[in-house]
Amino acid sequence: MNLSLAKADHPARESQWLGFTSCGRQYACDLLWVKEVLRCPAVTPVKLASSYIRGVVHLRGQILTAFDLEARLGHPVSEPRPASRCIVFKTTNDLVRLPRPPEDHELADSDPTGLLVDAIGDILPPETRVLPAPPEALSGLDTRFIAGVISSQDSLTTVLQIGNLVSMLELKKSPAV
Amino acid sequence: MSADQEMLDLFVQESSEHLQTLETDLMALESNPTDNALLNSIFRSVHSIKGGAGFFGFDPIVKLAHVMESVMSLLRDAVLKADQPMVSLLISTSDKLNLMLVNPERAIEIACEGEIAGLKAILDGTSSGTTPSARKGGEKPPAKNTKIKSDSVFDKELARFNFHPDDLLDGLKHGQNFYIVQAELAKEIESQSQTLENFVSELASLGTLIGTEASLPDHVTLSNCAAADVSCRFFFVTALEPFILCGALGLGDENIHQIDSSKLGEWVKTAPAQNMAPIVHEPQEIEEKPPEAVVSQSIVPTSPTVPTIATKPAEPTATQIDPKPVAAAKRKPEETIRISVGLLDSLMNLAGEMVLGRNRLLRIAGRSDTGSDNSQMQSVVQEISSVTSNLQDTIMRARLQPVGSLFGKFTRIVRDLSHKLDKQIQLEIFGDDVELDRTLLEGLSDPLTHLVRNSVDHGIEIPANRIAKGKTSCGTIRLSAAHLAGRVQIEVLDDGGGMDPERLKAKAVEKGVITTEQASQMTDSDALQLIFAAGFSTAEAVSDISGRGVGMDVVKTNIEKLGGHVELESRLGQGTRIIIRLPLTLAIVPALIVGCRGTTYALPQINVDEIVHPGEEYPLKSMGGARVLELRGQLLPVVDLSDLLGHPPRENTKQENFVVVLRLDHVSYGLIVNEIISNEEIVVKPLGRHLRSVSYYTGATILGQGEIAVILDPNSMAQGRISASQLAQNASKSNEAALSESTSERVLIFQETNGEFLAIHLKKVMRVESVKASDIERIGSMDCLRKNHDSTLRLVQLSDLLPIKPQTQRGDEFFLIVPRPPFDGLCLVASRIVDSADLSDDQIDRATFKARGLKGSAVLSDRLSLVLDFDAIAEMLTAGGDETSVFAQGHFMLTANSQKPGHSQHHITQLPNANAPATLTN
Amino acid sequence: MKTTNQKGDFKITPGLELNTSTVETAAAQLEKALQKADAAKSVEIDLSQTSAFDSGTVKILLALAQECQTRGLNLKIQASEEAKQFLNLFHLQRRMSIITQEDAE
Asked: Measured between CB atoms, does C25 come within 8 Å of chain B?
């Protein structure tokens, strides 16, 4: 059920990127943040949760909060489709053990969080150039979650800022009480 | 590099612990300025902090700690006596150290010149002159006339021994600890059945004995020496830490006096060899040593990080567990280990999962189609079951911490706050070794702080007022913890001014929480409960002292989120008592699993009173905009869970629904759900932070097949939809007649015998049971009905209390009318239930039949009935005193002001796959 | 308690053990004995009859030393090797001279 990614053990300065797709768009995130990838996770929806939360997933006895990427970024939310994959992020406990945690590691959650995506793509090497995102790519989106873009001949990959993504940047009041 | 980080974290962790001890000791020092044990302990704490800081090169910390340590050394040697300003200065220094340790690398930013100056002034003020300052951080050398001289005190200590300074070099080089071990030969050594030779050889085996001195007190001569005891001092060096030494030698803290190695180191350089004759030593000037050399002296000696590094685990975040409460002073390190919080949580999770698996296994094993006839398997299943329970218990216990760790900080809070407010307050702490799950401790911290601050701020009066009232000028706040009936009970008790029910009522009316009419009808004890109402605060201004606008309602909510209850008792002019009751364990609770629109939810069983199928018997109605359920003459406000959760309304099929009657402390309401699934013991898991903003949820759980059910919070759900005023209104109204705003109420008409007809207001009645005479037992002088192993109902014959015809003989079958709590420990005997009827207040004839226990009489259903005044009857029964304490545990409180602590579970219907019904211990 | 005076050495032979069990008696006797020592320059006490050493021994000797000091007498202890070991544990040799048989020889 789970697909564990081999740990990238590099003495390199920067860490690798994990590519993935969601709603036809390409994204990438710092591999250091990634703990594992779940296949076809059973997501239990939670009423009254913020719109960017698709629900919760049972992960080895813990409750994982599953994010809807499109909603989190600010794309118009369509009918939720069953999630093919869930990228599970490391928690605070997981991250402090790393010799070189990602620089936004302080924003990590102490409880498990994850991102629901369609498919996992390639692992990109550390030297991949990440450029600042052009304004068109950002329009209508919450830019706090975007670190930049990776440009290739045929596509633009949006690089996500996971720390911000999983943090409570402002206390969003849920619809109830 | 990461190893460095880990060591640094360890240093910060340990220093924090030292600072906590330091603060506690300094507080105690205020009242006991010459207590040697305290002085020693404080010295050691500062010394350890200094050592560790030196190791990492945190010079500002070393500098501050060093000056403090020097002062402590003088205090400890009784050269100085600690007075109030000195202790305050020390406390303030300890605070600065605390601040510095928050971010040691930036410790320089913490301003502490005041403390340093103050401490130095103390040092300068003593005749021994300045301490030989190990100069760090580029301090200038002292001026000529206060040049570096060893303390004469220091000399005095050592002068009585004879040794050669070179004897010390080895110990200094290896960074060992120097001690003067002092003991009385007969009283302390021989009394432990040790020969002196053994003791000395033991000592010698633990390190190196540098010098020994034996002496008798001055006044002793041959003629009076019989009663005296020889006091012996050993100058001793060892790698061992003081507490280990204590243990190994069988001596106490006060026998072991550690010598500052850095001072010793310096002294060694300057001192000529000691002679046979005891001399007072005059050292020469020493030149300024380069800081590194001096630092290197003080790093290694007593750095606590050095010995413990080898044993620490990988996790940098650490917490210390004490597996069982040990005698405070002599806690040996071998009995505890550090373990990371994350690891402990993982263990908890796993234990929880195991319990669930075990439960499923038990069910499967119990089924006849799978394994119930396989006795081998049965016995294995039983074993596993038992081991699982043990494992769970043990892991739970590992998470327990003494509540003293929480209570400890209040000494400081009370002290500072009372100083600020010019009040005299003494804080008493009891039961600080009672243990609680650590999550409970965390959750208690804020509420308790609020309560204690309240007591200080609003409870205890200023001394002038207290004296005027004839009280002592010093008020007392008592924090206590105790295990009571399967729960932990924490109390905050003060002898202050108490709370004024009238003022509370006035405020409540002002804030629209209740109406004036309700206020006039409200009893004093109910009025006190108003303080828990949302948005209620009697403080004229929300002072920064009393909190950030936090009210008692938040305290209550927070406590209830932990699964506990809060109660309040108060007597105007005398004081206030707040009682917090908490469950012992947190993670596994019985729950009712329900379904709403296809999703599964869990409700804490403790709040579930009963489950009702709305229909003819229990009609669901609308009143104004609200829905209510008629339940035995009471109107219960009702909330639809699907509405609460934001589901769009569905038109049809109300018949399938259920109403779960939820009881909160003072109100009940009904929750409409679609399905009742089961009773389960569930493991409570936290919801991530992104979901915590939904107040209706207090966590989630993983059910048998792995599906997730969110746990609902009955309190928040009530607050969302039901205002206090609406509840209050509903409580006092009754049925159809209520729609037209009349004041008639429903009564139950019954007979005890074949004589008078009696009427009791249904709102006082919880239920009516029919029983057989054979179910009744006689206990003492009472007749009782045993409900289950936990509770007993006492039978009350009204003819004993009222002037009515007594029952000569009870039939084989009769009825028991059980009143609502807090009187549900007794029941009225009735031979026949006649009818129910409406009765309005003005129908009651109060003149014709007058008796205590009767409101009067009325003609109901064409018959004359005597209307019972149940409150008076209850009073008459409780006036019976001790008898009422014999039975009905938890159902009957003795003190007039308290509320019932537990919940009655009598209404839970048995459900299909109920594993175990709810027990009353919740 | 037997006492003799030999050329300025006031010798005491206790005739009983000097330890916790005998403190009161021994101390009293010693005190009485010392009253006769005024003419001497030093006091020598024979410890050979004491077989059990404990804090009482130390106590008596210390008190004795104190007494001698006030009277301006030197104190010497005649002891077995074993006794000397014991007394040295407490560095009593600073307050009194401890002589063993071997030393004397």
From this structure: no
- pLDDT digits 0-9 by tens, B477-507: 999 988 765 567 899 999 988 888 888 888 8
| C-alpha distances in Å from residue B79, one per residue of A175, B151, B152 | 67, 11, 10
B162 interfacial to chain C (CB closer than 8 Å): yes
Mapped onto helix, strand or coil, the DSSP state of residue B694 is coil
Pairing of strands A113-117, A85-89: antiparallel
Tell me the mean pLDDT in the region B615-636.
Answer: 77
- Which positions in chain B have a beta carbon within 8 angstroms of at least one beta carbon in chain A? 1-2, 314-317, 340, 342, 349-350, 352-353, 599, 644-647, 685-691, 693-697, 700, 702, 706-708, 710, 716, 719-720
Give the C-alpha separation, B88 to B652, whole Å: 72
DSSP, residue by residue, C69-80: HHHT-EEEEEE-
pLDDT digits (tens, 9 = 90+) for B207-243: 888 888 888 887 788 888 888 888 888 888 888 777 7
CA distance B14 to B19: 9
Provide the pLDDT for residue B491: 92
Structure tokens at B616: 């003819």
Are residues C51 and C21 in contact, defined by beta-carbon separation less than 8 angstroms? no
* pTM score: 0.41
Domain(s) of CATH 2.40.50.180: residues in chain B? 588-727, 743-886
- Asked if A111 lies within 8 A of B686 by C-beta distance, the reply is yes
CATH of A2-165, one of 2.40.50.180, 3.40.30.10, 3.30.450.20, 2.40.30.170: 2.40.50.180
Cβ distance B599 to A174 less than 8 Å, yes or no, reads no
- At C48, is the secondary structure helix, strand, or coil? coil
- Interchain contact, B211 vs C31, CB within 8 Å: no
Closest to B756 (Cα-Cα) out of B801, B692, B792: B801
Question: B401-583 sits in which CATH class?
Answer: alpha beta
Query: Tokens at residue C70, please?
Result: 């006030």
| pLDDT at residue B24 in the model | 85
Tell me the per-residue pLDDT of A2-39, one tens digit each, with 9 for 90 and over: 343 443 443 444 688 999 999 888 999 999 999 989 98
Q: What is the percentage of chain B residues whose pLDDT exceeds 90?
A: 4
* Number of residues that this document lists for chain C: 105
**CA atoms of B23 and B560, how far apart (whole Å):** 32
In tens, the pLDDT along B276-302 reads 333 323 333 333 333 333 223 332 333
Supply B752's token pair: 């005890």
> What is the Cβ-side half-sphere exposure of residue B837, based on CA atoms within 13 angstroms?
22
CB contact under 8 A, B688 and A45: no
Number of domains present in the structure of chain C: 1
Q: What is the DSSP secondary structure assignment for residue B651, as one 8-state letter?
A: -
Q: For chain A, which residues make up each domain, given as ranges?
A: 2-165
- Nearest-neighbour CA in chain C from B150: distance (Å): 25
Q: Which of B351-360, B641-650, B795-804 has the lowest mean pLDDT?
A: B351-360
Reply yes or no on whether the pLDDT at A114 is more than 90: yes
- Provide φ and ψ at A45, rounded to 5°: -70, 150
The whole-number pLDDT of residue A129 equals 84
- Per-residue pLDDT tens over the stretch B845-881: 887 777 888 888 888 877 888 888 888 888 777 665 4
Whether B695 and A175 lie within 8 Å, measured CB to CB: no
Q: Which fold has domain B341-398?
A: Helix Hairpins (1.10.287)
Closest CB to A93 among B1, B342, B702? B342
Average pLDDT of the residues in B716-722: 70
Of A53, A96, A99, the CB nearest to B690: A53
- The answer to whether A157 and A52 have CB atoms below 8 angstroms apart is no
Task: Find out whether B811 and B863 touch, Cβ atoms under 8 Å.
Answer: no
* Interface contact flag, A109 B689, Cβ < 8 Å: yes
Nearest CA in chain C to B214: C90
